[in-house]
């Protein structure tokens, strides 16, 4: 059985916190992807996971869980790939559909109903999986090997739109 402990407090130094957990013998550490719940503030998921990976050498590093309502699938895949490198393969991605309605609304976003959240989660999971496991899609001029041609074209078009939106380009 593997035991994991979660970094939950924005005021904790993720480097020192992670080193203490490794010294204590934990198998894995993770960081939650929340901004706040009530008056509680959380550390930034990618910054903290990166710091924890760089500060440790043995433990698995995870996200518990990247909030699909706050993060786009291209960003998630990009960060996960880089964290896999930084951690020497110790990173495990955890993706969530988003459950804290007050946090989402308090961040100025619309909180979708359960069926929309589930659909968005499934779509993001498929895109992230394709980006993580099918390198040609990152080039966006080669068809993916794991999807049928129509799905491959649709996914490449979606990823291209996401990248253009992120960089401020329009077509």
Characterization of this structure:
The structure is a single chain. With 171 residues, this protein is of the alpha/beta class. It has 7 helices and 8 strands, in the order βαβββαββαββαααα. The chain has a 4-stranded parallel β-sheet with strand order 1-2-5-7. A two-stranded antiparallel sheet has the order 3-4. The protein has a two-stranded parallel sheet with strand order 6-8. The N and C termini lie far apart (50 Å).
Short recap of the structure:
This protein has 171 residues and is of the alpha/beta class. Helix content is 50%, strand content 13%. β1 (4-7), α1 (14-24) and β2 form a beta-alpha-beta unit.
Give the key terms.
single chain, 171 residues, alpha/beta, 4-stranded parallel sheet, 7 helices, 8 strands, globular
Binned strand content: 5-15%
Strand and helix order: EHEEEHEEHEEHHHH
The coarse overall form would be globular
> Which structural class best describes the helix and strand composition?
alpha/beta
Tally of helical runs: 7
Cα distance spanning the termini: 50 Å
Counting DSSP E segments of at least 2 residues, the number of strands comes to: 8
Q: In this structure, how is the largest beta sheet organized? A: 4 strands, parallel
Please, what is the average pLDDT?
Answer: 85
What is the share of helical residues? 40-55%
Strands side by side in the biggest sheet? 1-2-5-7
Specify Rg, calculated over alpha carbons: 17 Å
**Which regions have little confidence, pLDDT < 50, spanning 5+ residues?**
135-147
């Amino acid at each position: 059985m593997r035991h994991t402990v979660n970094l939950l407090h924005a005021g904790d130094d993720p480097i020192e916190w992670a080193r203490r957990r490794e010294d204590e013998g934990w198998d894995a550490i993770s960081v939650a992807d929340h901004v706040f719940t009530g008056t509680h503030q959380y550390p930034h998921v990618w910054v903290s996971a990166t710091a924890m990976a760089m500060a440790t050498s043995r433990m698995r590093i995870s996200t518990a869980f990247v909030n699909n309502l706050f993060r786009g699938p291209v960003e998630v895949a990009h960060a996960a790939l880089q964290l896999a490198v930084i951690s020497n393969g110790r990173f495990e991605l955890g993706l969530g559909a988003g459950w804290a309605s007050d946090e989402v609304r308090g961040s100025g976003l619309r909180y979708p109903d359960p069926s929309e959240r589930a659909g968005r989660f499934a779509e993001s999971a498929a895109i992230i999986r394709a980006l993580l496991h099918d390198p040609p899609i990152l080039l966006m001029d080669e068809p993916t090997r794991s999807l049928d041609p129509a799905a491959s074209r649709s996914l490449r078009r979606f990823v291209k739109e996401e990248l253009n939106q992120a960089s401020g380009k329009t077509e």
